[in-house]
Amino acid sequence: MCDSNISVFPLHRRRKLVEGIARVLESKNGEDANAFWRSTATTILVQLSESGIAPRLAEQEVRTLLHAVIDDIATRNAAKFAQ
Prior knowledge:
Order of helices and strands: HHH
Pfam families: DUF6074
Shape: globular
Number of domains: 1
Number of helices: 3
InterPro entries: DUF6074
Low-confidence stretches: none
Largest sheet: none
Number of strands: 0
Helix content: over 70%
Structural class: mainly alpha
Distance between the termini: 53 Å
């Protein structure tokens, strides 16, 4: 199987996706949070694969999405503490 030349709108730029995942993760702790993220990441990887995105690119997109989610959580927490 060949790597594709298809590119996607970067997941980390999809604000509603990032914020939605961040809100759910903030409401969970420990293994519940880990399980939610693993499930979410797997679902997204499957969707990207079915769309013809190369596996390495799909994995990179999901990693970058996770960083955006973590940044979103940190930014919101910093804003709460600043008030």
